[in-house]
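Side project, low priority. Logging it here so it doesn't get lost.
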Amino acid sequence: MLFFVWIFILSCTKGDPSPSIGPRVKPFNLVFKFIKNKEKLPDSILNNIKLSYYLNNIKQYQSIYPAADTFSKLGIQTTDIDFGFISADDGVKNYYFEFPDGSKDTLYADYRRNTEAQAFSDTCFCYIPLKHIYINGKIPNIDSSLMMYGTVYLFNK
């Protein structure tokens, strides 16, 4: 038993540059449930939504794709994890959902990079927290029926 305690103490020493327990290093991706009149948008729309942003006045695209398994049946889409890095590190806060009919909706997502001390004290216990999110200038509602899986923002089209 003392051997295991000794191993545990050694693994938690200050000299370890990459502790196994600590704040989340990667940002959480954004998850949206796209609905209209309380019904999921048709797959023909969901499968063709694009998410764009401008970096140095050049239009870029960020991946948005159906969530795995049963979530995709609910119309849930998710961004890549690098979405948070783009916001925090490159300063991009405004994004645009582009729909197949040519319409656009604005997404404001403000991720910030925390110092180590901030990451330990932040409520998300992470280095790159999402500080603010708006869809078309409004704080989006959260689907409370899916809270056990994380935050799913409702996007009413």
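Brief comment: The first helix runs from residue 2 to 11.
Revisit when time allows.
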